[in-house]
Design brief:
alpha+beta, Alpha-Beta Plaits, 2 domains, 3-stranded antiparallel sheet, 5 helices, 6 strands, DUF2007, DUF2007 domain-containing protein
Length: about 130
Amino acid sequence: MDYVIASTYNNYIEAHLAMGNLQSESINCWLKDENTVTIDPILTNAVGGIKLMVAQPQIGRALDILKNTKKEYQQQHPCPHCGSTNVEYVSTPKKASNWLGTLINLLLGIGAPLPVDKVHHCFDCGYEYEAQ
């Protein structure tokens, strides 16, 4: 059976939640490159993240489920500034602590990056806010 990429993830928690959601709907799927990204997060970009692989005949239904799940999440977290649901939970490079941590890691030769702050970002008005 042929498998195709339905979505990619930067961490195994989000990937497993999505996979579990699809499996609960009897969709045949698995995670590719999960171990590589989990063991060495620096390789995330090199391997393209954790890939949620879905059986070719079920890809349309799987994409619909993932899209609906994302839409439900966005409706639960509307932008408090403009009310838009065009919102995603993203890493923020704006905080000085994120840049300082990266610089220290480079100077000291530490392999693992420091945790990056994440915020909800509204793509309509540009407002960023912490999760409630």
